[in-house]
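pasting Polyhydroxyalkanoic acid synthase for the record, 91 residues
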Amino acid sequence: MPSIDIRRPHQLSSAEAHAVIDKVAARMREKFDVQTQWQNEALTFQRPGINGKIAINSDEIHVSAQLGMLLSPLKSMIEQEIRRKLDEHFG
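structre below
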């Protein structure tokens, strides 16, 4: 299964980073019908064809995901969109 692994440095407080990820998660739920759940310092997400997590560390955001076969051809487009959103929110 193809995977995505992106790390982005940030300088936000934990509370600020959580707020940003909550905002992103709400948009994911609305736009892509993704189920999300916080587990400690990581937001897990899943829907048919993809599952992963967004982990908040003190100095970086780490997005990891596994893509199913149907989404495999879209891997580069999905990675590009994740990077764009990380730049937008954690620039």
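The chain has a mean pLDDT of 94.
The chain has one domain: 3-90.
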